[in-house]
From TrEMBL:
Database matches in InterPro entries: DEAD/DEAH_box_helicase_dom (IPR011545), Helicase_ATP-bd (IPR014001), Helicase_C-like (IPR001650), MZB (IPR018973), P-loop_NTPase (IPR027417)
Gene Ontology terms: cellular component: nucleus
GO molecular function per UniProt: 3'-5' DNA helicase activity; ATP binding; nucleic acid binding
The species this protein was found in: Saccharolobus solfataricus (strain ATCC 35092 / DSM 1617 / JCM 11322 / P2) (Sulfolobus solfataricus)
All residue ranges annotated as the Helicase ATP-binding domain in the record: 64-236
Name of protein: ATP-dependent helicase
Domain of life: Archaea
Residue ranges constituting the Helicase C-terminal domain according to the UniProt record: 264-409
Keywords: ATP-binding, Helicase, Hydrolase, Nucleotide-binding
BP GO annotations: interstrand cross-link repair; nucleotide-excision repair
Length: 739
């Protein structure tokens, strides 16, 4: 394509280039029977044909038959291949027979976006369709209560609070016959744990519930279905790929800033008349890319979590109406919200998982147009790995969802919500972890145990009303004077909100003037002039407690997995030049900021190397910690921020879930640690730096600004472990930890 030649030519300005091109050709699922051959209501047949469908794909017909028979199924098929119609046609036919369904979408925005699609098929059938979420007016709620709709569209957050706090909503939900969970690939990590517990509450720990799930991008198994919903279900597959053509390009950024390069590439594409969507995984980097784009005279606005909902909706409307050249977004626009036709997707960084890559790439070239997809690979270890092995980038398998259904912090939220609904719950009727959750809640005075029952307290409902399914950590509110302008969840907030930190919101620059971790408040001051620097925290981590749950041997060394109590201390910050990315100055606080929390992780017992000094050991294990976390992106589908690590000069390396209570990623790494070591070996062996750089053992999230690191010593350790030439005796964990 001519545009690729132009892009490659323009990239030379930044010493960057297109390193690999992958063409995704047109593919369509196998066809099944025509609409007129299917045993559905004649009015529905007419409505479907007018909608533009005259024949079903085979997988759609298989889904139709199983859903009509009330079998639990998960439908997996690529973007644009009709997975929505696969469940919508049978539930509309069931609705014409008087049966009711609940359609659950991950977000309010997506639920409201899909409402129009459902109406197109339902409006001529005389069916009652309604949406119920936090924005539904009271008058509309009354209508839905009085006349329960055949199809109720909602989201998990509404179900969570509605079941606990509203008798009428509870009746509306529990009298439904079918529950459809669309876009289930979103339900990973903490949110996946929430969905499992929400499903338990909906069915009240019984198995007589009909569940249909759907996604374009998830590695699904029967085991996953049961883990996510607590009931058995079958998998129905269409095709894994999207319907349509896409040109995927990997860009080698050289030594250039990926953020500047993403903004520049967006400008090149916009000036060619294309509408662009840029993805980053960091809220602050999304803001930075949009600000840099202004200098290239293109108008990119920001769409991310942490913004006020009204701001995000405005951006969606402006993009849909053609008022913007494009948008820089975090995963908030991964889902299929209608934002009009997007010609090109730019991924400013390698997405956290292949699932997310496929999902984001699917936003380009929809509505039968060829899509352009650009991924900028930089100087981190995994990007360097894929630049050496570009074919592996596109032949990866879509991972199954990673989440931890045993996350006790999540279970506590749902146990309390269930108690708010029931007022009194018999402990013997509950799963063991729910009993444990109630015991903890009783010690926190949020529930009361009397004999074999747990009872609600006067504060139970008040507390439940403040809970969220989007987090388990405390939420820090951000204020400019008295106006709330955003929020961040702990512990992630400590990476952005600390005294004198530079913080960006809606392309505006702020300085954190005060951070009160006890009151969960950050106060900011707006900066009108451009700053030449950004900031990162200097912090330490320590493992306070460890409760082993599992143990195995990997290359002759002991590895344990279990519950952990960690403490994070922000001790200062470092400033970096915006353009060169070089560190400038370090500053330290008199009183560090501390936060203690529980999570899950693995503890690796590396052997000590005989001829190494204390400093040698620190450099060896710290570098190995970094490179194993990088390798987890390949071995366990981890994102850059899913895992954190701690190293000890005694050889112990801790790798933990960043989410409070655990996300399940560290458990997957525990199970696949051999593969992680093999990828880590490739990283440290292939780099030609002197003894450590961003291509191998440096980490952008290192707590001590990438000190005490040695690629060569890590190579000696990992190579020796895999070959079996390095062995040692385990000793007690000791020495000062390095994060």
């Amino acid at each position: 394509m001519e545009i690729l030649s132009e892009v490659n030519d323009k990239l030379k300005t930044f010493n960057a280039k297109i390193a690999h091109v992958h063409t995704e050709t047109f593919l369509e699922p196998e066809y099944g029977p025509s609409i007129n051959e299917i045993d559905i209501d004649d009015k529905l047949k007419k409505s479907i044909i007018e909608y533009g469908i005259e024949r079903l794909y085979k997988y759609q017909y298989d889904a139709y038959r199983k859903i009509k028979n009330k079998e639990n199924v998960m439908i997996i098929s690529g973007t644009g291949t009709g997975k929505t119609e696969a469940f919508l046609i049978p539930i509309l036919d069931l609705a014409l027979k008087g049966e009711r369904s609940v359609l659950v979408y991950p977000t309010k925005a997506l639920a409201r976006d899909q409402l129009t699609r459902v109406y197109k098929l339902a409006r001529e059938l005389g069916l009652n369709v309604g949406i119920f979420d936090g924005d539904t007016p009271e008058k509309e709620r009354e209508r839905l209560y009085r006349n329960p709709p055949h199809i109720l569209i909602t989201n998990p957050d509404m179900i969570h609070l509605g079941l606990a706090l509203s008798t009428r909503f509870r009746f509306l939900l529990r009298t439904a016959d079918h529950f459809i969970f669309d876009e289930v690939h979103v339900y990973e990590g903490v949110l996946g744990a929430h969905i499992r517990n929400l499903a338990d509450r909906i069915k009240e720990f019984k198995n007589d519930i009909h569940i249909v799930a759907s996604s374009a991008t998830v590695g699904a198994t029967k085991y996953l279905f049961e883990e996510l919903f607590g009931v058995e279900g079958e998998i129905i597959e269409g095709i894994r790929r999207r319907k349509g053509i896409a040109i995927h390009s990997i860009i080698d950024s050289g030594n250039s800033s990926r953020w500047t390069l993403a903004a520049y590439l967006a400008a090149v594409l916009v000036k060619n008349g294309l509408k662009v969507l840029v993805f980053t995984d960091s809220q602050q980097m999304a803001e930075l890319v949009a600000k840099i784009a202004d200098r290239f005279r293109v108008n990119l606005e920001v769409h991310r979590a942490g913004l006020i909902a009204e701001e995000r909706i405005k951006v969606e409307e402006k993009l849909r109406n053609g008022e913007l050249d494009g948008v820089v977004a975090t995963p908030t626009l991964e889902l299929g919200i209608d934002i009009g036709t997007i010609d090109a997707v730019i991924m400013a960084e390698n997405p956290p998982s292949y699932t997310k890559y496929v999902q984001r790439a699917g936003r380009a070239g929809r509505r039968n147009n060829a899509g352009l997809v650009f991924t900028i690979l930089g100087d981190d270890p995994i990007d360097s790995y894929y630049l050496r092995h570009p074919e592996e980038f596109f032949t990866r398998k879509i991972q199954a969802l990673t989440f931890d259904p045993t996350n006790i912090e999540v279970i506590k939220i749902h146990a309390l919500a269930y108690l708010a609904e029931k007022y009194r719950v018999k402990l013997n009727n509950l799963p063991p972890l729910w009993k444990k959750a109630y015991e903890i809640l009783a010690t926190e005075s949020r529930a009361k145990i009397v004999g074999s029952y747990v009872l609600a307290t006067p504060e139970t409902k008040k507390y439940v009303a403040t809970t969220s399914l989007r987090s388990v950590g405390p939420i820090v509110r951000i204020y400019e004077d008295k106006k709330k302008i955003g929020e961040r969840e702990l512990p992630a907030a400590l990476h952005d909100l600390y005294p004198n930190a530079v913080y960006l919101i809606s392309k505006k620059t702020y300085i954190i003037e005060e951070f009160d971790i006890d009151r969960l408040i950050a106060k900011v001051r707006k900066v009108n002039s451009e700053l030449s620097y950004y900031t990162k925290p200097l912090y330490s981590m320590d493992l306070l407690e460890f409760n082993k749950k599992d143990e195995r041997e990997v290359y002759g060394e002991k590895v344990e997995y279990g519950d952990m109590k960690l403490v994070m201390r922000v001790e200062g910050y470092v400033t970096y030049d915006v353009y060169s990315k070089r560190g400038k100055n370090e500053y330290f606080y008199e009183n560090p900021i501390s936060f203690t929390y529980n999570t899950k992780g693995l503890l690796i017992y590396h052997p000590l190397i005989d001829d190494f000094t204390l400093i040698d050991h620190m450099e060896t294990y710290h570098a190995t910690e970094h490179v194993l976390i990088s390798a987890a992106r390949v071995a366990a589908g981890a994102s850059l921020t899913d895992l954190g690590g701690i190293s000890y000069p005694s050889g112990h390396v801790v790798i933990y879930d960043s989410s409070i209570g655990g996300s399940g990623v560290s458990k997957l790494l525990f199970e696949r640690l051999e593969q992680a070591y093999e990828v880590a070996l490739d990283i440290v062996k292939s780099c030609n730096c002197e003894d450590g750089c961003p291509n191998c053992v440096y980490s952008p999230y290192c707590g001590n600004n990438n000190k005490y690191l040695s690629r060569k010593k890590s190579l000696r350790l990992i190579d020796g472990l895999i070959k079996g030439t390095i062995k040692g005796v385990n000793k007690d964990r000791e020495g000062n930890p390095i994060a």
